[in-house]
Amino acid sequence: MPEAIEHDHEPQREKPLPVNLRRDQPLVPVDTVAGRALMAVIAILTFLAALSAGAAVLAARASDQWRGAVSDEMTIQIRPDSHRNLDEDVARAVAMARALDGIESVRAVPKAESDKLLEPWLGTGLDLVELPVPRLIVLKLKPGASPDVARFGPALRNDVPTAILDDHRLWLRRLSAMASTIIVSGFVIVLLVLTAAALAVAFATRGAMAGSRESVEVLHFVGADDDFIAREFQSRFIRLGLRGGAFGGLAAIVAIALLGLVSSLWSTAPEAEQLQALFGAFEIGWTGYAAVVLVAIVVAAIAGLVSRFTVRHYLRMLA
Asked: Does domain 72-167 have CATH number 3.40.50.300?
């Protein structure tokens, strides 16, 4: 009987503290499967966002090259006519163009050069004598000049009926619209990817808090400051965001550099000449690489801010 009494009064064992509240243990687990998965997701999203930003910068650079190459030139196209002497028509059009105000130089493109422009589509070694290939005359404008195209066009057509004046305004509008569409689409994709990264971090933060719920509740009820708890989660997810963003940004830089290398090695092919004419040299420059680095930094900042807001919202609900 005394032994039973002594057993009833035996002190109860205290419940041990959660592992992450013990000395020298982080509140948020550092190396977990969920953390590595989140870092991989952030790296993939950063890679896609960085590629989209690089494509937008590439389109902007190509658009500037197009405008610079087309806006200061006009072209006269002389179509062959069996009833007219083509060389005389070319000479007459050249003389009229040189007399126009605002023209810096006039160059009649040789027939061999015109034929070479058709090689990417028709192939090499073809006899183009029988084909009605138009002759081209390139007019280079003086800087800031605006020739009277409205008067020169009809006058040219009156003297040379087979001549067509192209001042490239229609092409400039089309190229500008296409480039603007590519740039806007790139930034929209970047925003969507960043939104997806924010949602992934929010779900990961809630999962981490669910795993550390006992620890958070203990710290909250013993009077720990909400900022202290939020900072613990924020620092953890900022590190994840920085690591994932660094991996994704580095992968994007390597991919862009490899594409540029392949483009330079492939530059001798006729198809590459057409691509280079459309997109320019496949280089995004320091501006593009800065945009890639900025995307990686923004992803890390989003990871920290979203985790902080998620934790503070949870603590307000707990209070």
From this structure: no
